[in-house]
UniProtKB/TrEMBL annotation:
Binds 1 S-adenosyl-L-methionine per subunit. It comes from Luteimonas marina. This is 7-carboxy-7-deazaguanine synthase. Substrate binds at L26, Q27, G28, R41, T84. It comes from the Bacteria. The lineage of its organism: Bacteria, Pseudomonadati, Pseudomonadota, Gammaproteobacteria, Lysobacterales. It is an enzyme of class 4 (lyase). NCBIfam families: rSAM_QueE_gams. Mg(2+) binds at T54. SUPFAM superfamilies: Radical SAM enzymes. Residues 32-226 form the Radical SAM core domain. Belongs to the radical SAM superfamily. 7-carboxy-7-deazaguanine synthase family. S-adenosyl-L-methionine binds at Y51, C52, D53, G86.
């Protein structure tokens, strides 16, 4: 069940974020896959990737105070929290939310498109940077200046839609030595590429990346809030 926003009228405008949903599920991808996790999905995104599966988060949402968000996260009683979107960093107050979640003792990850500067993100947060492939339609939005900021605590993700996408991503991994900076994850676009094909290509090339499929989609398909 999705949370209902508390009355945020008394909260300072500087202390509010627009939220699409807050829910408890299993983390379906990246390093923390399998852990019970509270997802805080912020509203809005400046990108329009062709494979986006959360278009419902582009608009709408409700205003929440940061205190209200923390209280709702704490109510679920788990340690892991994923701040996602949309593009969460499109709301500047997201940086304060991330730090407050860390201060509260949570293991925090941030799912970001990589189109916005990540320098201000709290160092305790694992930044999961989604590098946009050509087939996404948003490859020109990649902010390559983010790459030197990555640490072993962070992760890079490519959603691969075709063989051409794979070859492009493979070149980026090698040219920018991404595997020497942090974990690199390759995922097949659910509607466009066979997972078996992607797995076979990775193995054939001995590519230093981790193949992943989205666990939550295997369990619950595309059901929102899962």
């Amino acid at each position: 069940m999705h949370a209902v926003a508390p009355d945020a009228t008394a909260a300072s405008t500087a202390d509010r974020l627009r939220i699409t949903e807050i829910f408890l599920s299993l983390q379906g991808e990246a390093r923390d896959a399998g852990w019970p996790t509270v997802f805080v999905r912020l509203t809005g995104c400046p990108l329009r990737c062709g494979y986006c599966d959360t278009t419902y988060a582009f608009h709408g949402g409700e205003w929440w105070s940061i205190d209200g968000i923390l209280a709702e996260v704490a109510r679920h009683g788990v340690r892991h929290v994923c701040v996602t979107g949309g593009e969460p960093l499109a709301q500047k107050r997201c940086l304060g939310l991330l730090s407050r979640l860390c201060d509260a003792g949570h293991v925090v990850s941030l799912e970001t498109s990589g189109a916005i500067d990540i320098a201000g993100v709290d160092a305790r947060v694992s930044r999961v940077l989604d590098v946009k492939t050509p087939a996404s339609g948003e490859v020109a939005r990649n902010r390559w200046e983010n790459i030197p900021l990555l640490t072993p605590h962070d992760q890079v993700k490519f959603v691969v839609c075709s063989r051409a996408d794979y070859e492009w991503a493979r070149e980026v991994v090698h040219a920018r030595a991404l595997h020497a900076r942090c974990d690199v994850l390759f995922s097949p676009s659910k509607s466009e590429l066979s997972p078996t094909d992607l797995a076979d290509w990775i193995v054939a090339d001995r590519l230093p990346v981790k193949f992943q499929m989205q666990l939550h989609k295997l369990l619950w398909n595309d059901e929102p809030g899962r």
